[in-house]
Model the fold of this input.
Amino acid sequence: ELQRDSWLPSYNSACINEVVKETSEIYGPFEKLMVEKKEEGDRTHEETLQLKTQWACMQRNKRCVMAYLKHRAEEVMRMRWECGTSVMQQEQQDRLSAQELELANNYDRLLGEYMQEIGEDISMDMEPPRATHITVRVLKDLGEIATMDGSIRLDRNSEHYVRRYDVQHLIRQGYLEHMSK
Done:
């Protein structure tokens, strides 16, 4: 499911709850047998195998849920680096859980505080720039924006020669397209 979608599929709370329920159902008999027969010598060979199998099932469930949550958290953080901001489209926000939205906001805040502290925007260029100025084509109407060279009007399908720094975040967000020579 995670590999098929262009970004992240909607958070699957039903599946997570099902795995938690299954793990709880396995844990009940596991705990009961562990309490009843604390010493390994008190258990039969079958009971020992049962405990090992139940333990392996619970660990597998935990690993699967943790891999799912880790992948989603990494995607949320990756988006912050790619877009230069944590501002997401409503469609993307709707796919996240409340905890993932909180992660996005906290990660953005911490990264912003760090960049402010060092006085550098480290999310600007993910690759070393070849030139300080670039030509861009406007893909979506943005109206007038302020740049270091003054304000410019960004109307759909217009082209502009601008400082990379002024528009890099708009390129990452999909509003502009870098016209390569």
